[in-house]
Design goal:
Elements lengths: L19 H24 L5 H10 L1 H4 L7 H14 L1 H20 L2 H12 L4 E4 L8 E5 L2 E5 L1 E5 L7 E7 L5 E7 L6 E2 L14 E4 L10 E2 L10 H4 L2 H23 L7 H28 L6 H29 L9 H12 L5 H14 L10
Parallel strand pairs: 1-5
Antiparallel strand pairs: 2-3, 4-8, 5-6, 6-9, 7-8
Helix pairs in contact: 1-2, 1-4, 4-5, 4-8, 5-8, 8-9, 8-10, 8-11, 9-10, 10-11, 10-12
Amino acid sequence: MPPAALALASPPARTRDVTPAVVLERLRAALPAMAGRAAILDQQPSFPSEDIAVLRHIGALEVFAGDAPTPLQLMEALRLVGRANLSVGRLFEGHINGAKLVSWYGDDFQRRRLAQDLENGALYGVWNTEPNPGARIIRGGKGPILAGYKCFASGAGHVDRAIITALEASGARRMVVVDGADAARADPTGWKVRGMKATLSGLYNLSAIPVTREALLGEAGDYEREPRFSAGAWRFTAVQLGGAERILGLIRDHLTAATAGVHMVQRARFAGAVAATRSAWLWVREAALRAEAPNAGPDEIALVLMTRGVVERAGLDVMEAAARLVGTRAFFMECPIDLACRDLALYLRQPGPDKALDRAAEAFLERDAWSDDRLW
């Protein structure tokens, strides 16, 4: 049976015979309206139900969570949604991540259920972060149950199926598929942030949820199994890149509309922002191709980790350019640059960017990247 939340949703477009290229065209057409709704979702923080319904209806939730798209098509979809609204992009990327985990590690039943869920327009998510003492699998009266909470749970109370991690009594970490749409278990009140408000990344109470055989996903350690765990981070860099491109476009709009004209220093600052963003695009593109290759390994992990640092630096550079080139107007709440910068500033903080860059630097120091074509 499909998740109960789907009963009220508009039925998705038939996507079985629709190519990723067709869905990308539908997505491009839907993005202006999605970008236009971002300010309302920020001012009155609420889950972007309309935007998720659009992604469902045009087939993006089904097609881009499957095997049909090429790495570059998937990159384009993530980047475009991130450019329209980073909160929606975060949810979209989490959906793809969750579907991939089931596809990689699920048994026949779980993969069949995934296919049915995607056809019905279900939204998946992945929740790993947790407050102490963490999510646990404990003994209940009728079998194993969950205990504990997840925090920073994007879409808590709205995601149809969430992939969570929990510790068994042995200390092994397992993935469990749970219903993430139970509003009574969700507490968004602690998500008091300046950006990414519409993700509603609050607490989710896992207490007493049964852990059936069908709910257990994969084996112990599969969630962090390499190279998929670290190399898969390229997907959220694509969303972040879209956020940086959004700011760059808004800067250009401001400069081209300036009645006083644009002087040399402004053009130089703008050129630097363009170069940083385009360089990040090239890194993300290479990371997508390499990370999704069948022979991906430690070198691809190093490349993706370095890509995270490149995208972060580009995002910071573009936000600084916005402050300098637009000035005080960029900080007014009704200015779209303000929202775009607040969202990107928060998204770039997750998860552990300094640790990722340090791991990348170690790998590039250990190997001569300039004489080793594979690493470079």
